[in-house]
Amino acid sequence: MYKKIIFVFLSTFMTAPLIAKEYRCGWLLNPTPANFYFIDKEGEWGLSEQGMSSPLSDQSWDNMPESNDNEFVRINGNYGFSCVCLNVKTNKKNRRILEIYKKSKSLLLKRCLEDRELPNIYSANKEEYLKVDRVSDVLEADFNGDGQLDKAILVSDDYLYLYFGDSKLEEEKGEMKQVLSKSLTDFMQIVGQKVSLKTNNKGSLIIQSEHRESASLSSETIILAYRHKQFVVAGYRYQYEVVRDPTATQSCDINFLNRKGKHNGTAFTIAKKAVKASDWTRDVVPKQCRFEK
Question: pTM of the entire structure?
């Protein structure tokens, strides 16, 4: 009798750590109907799979966070992913979420993108995820003027992906189509310590890189515009400043669309037309802008 009680006690004690109630933050994915996954710093956890019974109760589903359209990334019609925090009971052995306590909350996408403990995941493709070490910046804007939001994704301050929203489909069925992937080392002479994505009132995509040293600051900007059904490099800027020595400042500003530029304030013209973004390399930069520090 005592042996049986001891065995039951030990069995309960040994299995208890495998099932735990925890507060976890990360990516909540719903890529296709009835398929739900959660990804945090420890990896992927299953919630439900199409065609299989889910351990989650109706109350657990009611406790799922409400979707915020501004912070939800659609990858397949109405399906996609968001950044959330969940109060959950997990089975660590089976990598499953068994229950969701309380009402969970959605977070800003930026929260998950900037969390260095989380694996980054971003997708603008119906069938596959783009899993990368670090998504540095994400920008949504209408780059091609069709009324649909497009996406620019900067990966690890090193690689740029551009996707178009499909204006031919109804909004709820909209998908994203990759139209460009390009290494920043091809785009720019320097890949700085800080690289960011911006847009202007014309819908152009602006890639800005900055590199700061103890006594100097270098900044470089590429402007991509959508012309004749393709992205072209419409503009290029470079500036090099030396702290406490304004005479050492060098600058260059080029508009490839009108073939005009300025080098240290002096105007010049260029022979080259605007080059397709996919064909652009550092060698295309006019000699007036190839500075040696």
Answer: 0.60
